[in-house]
Amino acid sequence: MKNTKKTIKDFELLGKKVLMRVDFNVPIKNGEITDDNRIVQALPTIKYALDNGARLILLSHLGRIKTEEDKINKSLLNVSRRLKELLSREVVFVDETKGAKLEEKINSLSNGEVLMIENTRFEDLNDKAESKNSEELGKYWASLGDIFINDAFGTAHRAHASNVGIASNISESGVGFLLEKEVKYLGEAVDNPQRPFVAILGGAKVSDKIDVIERLLEVADKIIIGGGMAYTFLKAKGENIGSSLLESEKLEYAKEMLDRGKDKILLPIDSVYGSEFSENATARIGDSSSVKSHELGLDIGPKTIDLFEEELKSAKTVVWNGPMGVSEWKQFSKGTISICEALANSAALTIVGGGDSAAAAIKFGYADKVSHISTGGGASLQYLEGKSLPGLDAIKNK
Questions:
Q1: What is the pTM of this model?
Q2: Which residues are catalytic, by number?
Q3: pLDDT, tens digit, for every residue of 235-274?
Q4: Which of 176, 211, 232 is the last residue of a domain?
Q5: 201-216 confidence digits (pLDDT tens)
Q6: What is the distance in angstroms between the CA of the first residue and the CA of the last residue of the chain?
Q7: Residues 150, 393, 181, 20, Cα dihedral to 10°
Q8: Residue ending a domain, choose from 176, 206, 226
């Protein structure tokens, strides 16, 4: 970890009010949590704090809050109930983000008890106080505790009142086990990789990955590109892409990257084309010479799968960010599953960089077959870009 940060283990926690920023921004459908991975990943740090007698106060956001109506479906109440099940102990939930009721509940906590504050982004209705890192709000939340522990990697690339704001206004701060692990794995991959180092980039847009492509051209030995973003690169090479996703304003950039990367960048050589952008589209395998004007590439094809798998066989470090196709649709999921399998069968250090690729690895049953699955898509991308993470930088060094 650059400038080794204090960790939760550096503090005497007994009887201390410990404010802990966690990332419980989990998907909820019809009131039910559909994926509790982020809650599960935070458990080691939470349990350590409670086992060591902390009076634990948890802060997290959930979704975006722009109107009063948004609050109805974005309460952390159900998340607190799921945490209670996972911990097998009571979780005090306070349906407020500040005020006398919250303070009273915090002050009545006993050693080894845990309390969860309501969604920190409810404060965004107060002139975006959370997202804009309001000094007043950061100071207030900091005043509620003795020690601040940041274990929310998923928001470490943002400077919010609930991470940077608290850390800047409290005398003692450190990182939790999850944040420490995230930075260790990503640091190992990017700052000091075992070679060959292969990066796999997918997802829809080139524009989301510009900085990371430039950084990886410097540090990676190969960059495999799939997903919707691949078609802008293929078009830049002069290939026919039919009606596939194209960012025409990024064509010059793609040409420049291909010129700079030369044989370092590996692109698809065939695709699974759909007759339309639909789960039930008629699918056909082909290459750029056969694609019809109305067809669009929705997954990498079998020859590309073989090509990518062959490249990954010799890799010693692999970082993957972004699916190879529309992996939520069964007939366009083979490419993404093949990457999961290749990583599972690899002896390399294998890191899945959050977001849709993490969701795919978990969904298809490969979560325990890779070295590390990141809990933060945006944060892992920012780290891969070589940029600092404000939520980490604000924590005190050892």
A1: 0.87
A2: 38, 205, 355, 378
A3: 999 999 999 999 999 999 999 999 999 899 999 999 999 9
A4: 176
A5: 999 888 888 889 999 9
A6: 11
A7: 0
A8: 176
